[in-house]
Specification:
alpha/beta; five-stranded parallel sheet; globular; binds flavin-adenine dinucleotide
């Protein structure tokens, strides 16, 4: 027996649980289920276990719009975020709809039946389980769960210590009193270095080139004050909007006046480091602010560790690993007992699932994204991909809300199929405009965006809010079909 579900969600992370909440609240007549490959709820916030793992955007915008973040810290620790997602699932009765240990492998659309057939593998038995659904909503995140990005380093086999990737942090890694080299200077490295430096003998952060960094307190004094005096929901809304607007303002400023913002960021870092520190070499990026994601340093912890001599930054090309550490192209050797390759994620949209439409294989990396949540000429399929310049959940909430509007429109009009009709005259552009290595490497596996509405991604919450909440569902691009079958 193949089980039929109205809306099938793939992934029980922040996005999948949020989407389930929206469906429950706004489309109570539809049944839904979540298929989750892992044995746990929480996605990213359950998977990543490296020391100090935390958010790098504030929880007032990384939290759901519908559920106030009541934790003490605005920049929260990974386990606290995981608990927040799990509590949302528990309180909403969503947990009972989640089938863990089900990895979706294939999805085939049939126009004649107006439904998807989805094949999932049970991770405990390897058995294939079939489902059918009217609508498939992908919340499988944006990176490969099975593998991180690990460039090959010459001499890796010669290194006498342990090599660790942050995505697969070993429970038994003892680093107290050890010398650690962390390769990379992105969000993960910037989190790991001060956290490990608390007990390690020394931590060296090794980078080819610097990243923009900005320090903020991990607690938000304004939010704390407001929460003492106003009801939680109202305080949350106010702080959320303040943070959204501030973030949009500074992003726009950085794009308009890159030189001024560059100076501001670099001077900010200089002020937190010991006098005479070589900021030009280690903290002056070669690109403009927001060409790549900005790195947050809560409570200046990284700079404190550097100031105290517990951590250092090494900028240069790695030549090879040697038995007792890493040799640079300059000839210098950085001694290490443990090497952490914080070299990034392997981007992957839609989890590598094989998609077929009416018997024909469809490579969705070649498709054009519609509103950043569906694909041209692909029926009844939506996905969540958050902002690159703001918190992921802001977009995830909008996408889930719009999906409910679309499903409601289909229910009222009796349409069974919703398909954004592709337009060959719209020019293609890359989905993400970042110059970061992990984005450039993934250009071929990510779908495209268009250069005009509704194919263009705004990376702007206010514009998207207007569009997703109030824009017409029948926008001249979205076609609805299958009404006759329903009427009969
Ligand atoms: C270390 C780290 C820190 C981050 N910090 C921030 C931050 O501060 N702010 C921010 O905005 N963003 C941040 N991000 C991005 C972050 O991933 C998002 O904020 C958010 O957690 C994404 O949620 P999601 O539910 O869309 O995806 P995920 O959290 O990736 O969850 C996807 C879920 O789908 C499941 N899944 C995948 N494929 C399948 C399949 N084939 N079948 C069944 N299930 C499947 C996975 O097992 C997983 O549970 C961070 C990312 C990382 C890695």
């Amino acid at each position: 027996m193949v089980e039929h579900i109205d809306v099938l969600i793939v992934g029980a992370g922040l996005s999948g649980v949020g989407a389930a909440h929206h469906l429950r609240a706004w489309c109570p007549e539809l049944n839904y289920s979540i298929l989750e490959a892992r044995d746990a709820i929480g996605g990213t916030w359950d998977l990543f276990r490296y020391p100090g793992v935390r958010s790098d955007s504030d929880m007032y915008t990384l939290g759901y719009g519908f559920r106030p973040w009541t934790g003490a810290e605005a920049i929260a620790q990974g386990p606290a975020i995981r608990d927040y997602v799990r509590e949302t699932a528990r309180e909403g009765g969503i947990e009972a709809r989640i089938r863990t240990g089900h990895r979706v492998k294939r999805a085939s659309w049939s126009t004649a039946d107006a439904r998807w057939t989805v094949e999932a593998e049970r991770t405990d038995t390897g058995e294939l389980v079939g489902f059918t659904c009217n609508f498939l909503h992908m919340c499988s995140g944006y990176y490969d769960y099975a593998a991180g990005h690990s460039p090959e380093f010459a001499g890796a086999e010669a290194f006498a210590g342990r090599i660790v990737h942050p995505q697969f942090w070993p429970d038994d890694l003892a680093y107290e009193g050890k010398r650690v080299a962390v390769i990379g200077s992105g969000a993960t490295a910037v989190t790991l270095v001060p956290a490990m430096a608390r007990t390690a003998a020394h931590v060296a952060m090794m980078q080819r080139s610097p990243t923009y960094m900005v320090s903020r307190p991990s607690r938000d004094a304004f939010a704390d004050r407001l929460r003492r005096h106003a009801p939680a929901r109202i305080a949350y809304k106010i702080v959320r909007w303040r943070n959204v607007l501030l973030q949009m303002f500074f992003f726009a400023l950085a794009r308009r006046r890159p030189a001024a913002m560059k100076r501001r960021f670099i001077d900010g870092v200089r002020g937190l480091l010991p006098p005479g520190y070589d900021v030009e070499t280690h903290f002056t990026p070669r690109y403009d602010p927001w060409d790549q994601r900005l790195c947050l340093v809560p409570d200046a912890d990284l700079f404190e560790a550097i100031g105290a001599g517990r951590a250092s930054v090494v900028t240069g090309e790695i030549d090879r690993f040697v038995a007792d550490g890493i040799r640079l192209a300059s000839g210098e050797t950085i001694a290490a007992d443990i090497i952490v390759t914080a070299t990034g994620l392997k981007l992957q949209l839609l989890s590598g699932i094989e998609f077929t439409i009416d018997g024909e294989a469809r490579d969705l990396s070649r498709a054009m994204s519609y509103k950043g949540m569906m694909f041209g000429d692909v029926p009844n399929l939506s996905y969540t991909f958050g902002y690159t310049n703001a918190s992921w959940t802001l977009k995830a909430d909008l996408v889930a809300g719009y999906l409910c509007r679309l499903l409601d429109h289909m229910r009222r009009s009796g349409a069974q199929i919703a398909i954004p009709r592709g337009d060959a005259s719209v020019a293609e552009a890359p989905l993400l405009e970042f110059t970061s290595g992990y984005v450039q490497r993934a250009r071929d596996v990510l779908p495209k965006q268009g250069t005009t509405k509704p194919w263009k991604l705004h990376q702007n919450y206010a514009l998207d809010l207007a569009n997703f909440k109030f824009g017409r569902v029948e926008d001249g691009v979205m076609e609805f079909a299958g009404r006759k079958r329903r009427a009969r």
